Predict the 3D structure of the following.
Amino acid sequence: MADTNSAISYFPDIDTIKYEGIDSENQLAYRYYDKDQMVLGKRMEDHLRMAVCYWHTFCSDGMDIFGSGTFNRPWHSANNDRAAADAKMAAAFEFFTKLDLPYYCFHDVDVTEASDTPDELSNNLKYAADNLARHQEASGKKLLWGTANLFSHPRYAAGGLTNPDPQVAACAIRQIRDCLEVTHKLGGSNYVLWGGREGYDTLLNTDLKREQDNFGRFLSMVVDHKKKIGFEGKILIEPKPHEPMYHQYDFDTATIYGFLRRYDLLGEVHVNIEPNHATLSGHSFAHELATAVSLDMMGSIDINMGNYQNGWDTDQFNLDIRDITSALIEILPSGGLDTGGFNFDAKVRRQSNDEADLFYGHIGGVDALARALLAAADIIERGKIDAMKKERYAGWESGLGQAMISDDASLASIADTVASDGINGSHSSGKQEYLENLINQSIK
Ligand code: XUL
Ligand code: CO
C-alpha cells in the first residue's frame, strides 16, 4: 500500500501558489485567480472547477517523434512498475495541492504500472483506485473525470470500440467498464470517451456502417452500465476531427449530435470540448461551445490552444484572453458548467524541463481563465451584447414574425403576405465591429 503522507517532496522549492493581485512580480503567484472572489453570484473556484491532467504533467517525459525524453522528472524511473506509479501519484497530489486547484483527471494507464494483459490492467487499476481514494481523502482533491486509454496499446491501432476485430473491441469494453466503475467509486463528476483511434486511415479497408453501428451499440451499453451502477455524472464524448487518424468519427460537436440522434442517445451523452480540437476541425472554441449549448449537449472543457501556424494538436496552455472570453459568454448565461470543469489538457514544451515550468504553465492557464471570467462577467453585467442580439431578432416576437411561425402558417400563406402587406425587406447593420469592441472594452 502506498504511503499518502510521504515525507518526500517532489517540488521542495515551491510553496502553495496564492493570489497576490495584478501588481505582484512573483511569477509563482496568481494575479487574477482569487478563488473566493464572487463573480456573477458564484465563487471563482466554483465557476471554473479547474482540473490538472495526469498525462501531460506527470506521465510525459517530453519525448516527441524526433527525439527521446528531456524531462527526467524525479518521480520517473526506468521501469514503469508499481513503485514508479506510487511515486508519480504522490507527486501528482503534491502538485494539485500546491496549485490549490480542486480537481484532477486521469486515464487508467496514467495511474497504473505497465500491464501485460487486460486482466492485469484490471487488477492494477483496482490497486491504483484505492491509492487515489486515499490521496483524495488526505488532500481534499476531487476527480473531474476518468477515462480509459484506448489508443496507446498496439492492439488499438485500428480503434477500440470500432475495431474490425471483436477481440480488440471486447478488450476496449473491459477497460471502459472498469474505468467507469472506478470513476464512480472515486466520486468522479463525469466519464470521458475520447475516440482517438475510432475512425480510419483509409476507406479502402474500412466498413463505415459496421464501425459506426458497433460504436452506437457499445456506447448504449456504456450508458446502460452507468445507470446500473448508479453513476450520476455525465458520459462525455470528446470531439476531434483527426490526429492520430486521418478521419475520426467524433469530428466535431455537430457530427456527434447526428451520431447520438442516429443511435437514440441524445440527452444521455454530452461533449467535452477542447479548443485545439475545435480549431483542427475549422471552428473556433466559441463556436463549439455555442453549438453544444444550442443542442443541449454541453458537458466539460479540456482547456488548451493550438497555434496559427501548424495543423496539429500542440496542446499549449491557453493564454488568449479574448478567445476564452468569447467562449465564456456562450456558456455562462445558460448556467455555466454544471458537472463540467476546465481540465488543463495542456503541456509544457519539450525544452521546459524544470519542474517549476509545470507551475508556470498552469499558473498562466489559471490566470487566463480567471481574467477571461472577469471580462465575461463584465460583458454579461453590462448586458449590451445580449440586448443587441435580442433587438436583432425582435421581429420574431410579434406581428409578422409570430404569424410566420404559427401552426397556421404555410409556405404559400407566407409568400402571399409579401404582396398583400407590401413587404419589401431591408437590411440593417449587423454591427460586428461595434460588438467586437465591446469584448475588448471588458478585458481588463
Ligand atoms: C487527445 C486528448 C486526450 C483526451 C483524453 O487529443 O485530448 O488527452 O482528452 O483521452
Ligand atoms: Co483532451
Q: What stands out?
A: The chain has 16 helices and 14 strands. The first helix runs from residue 44 to 48.
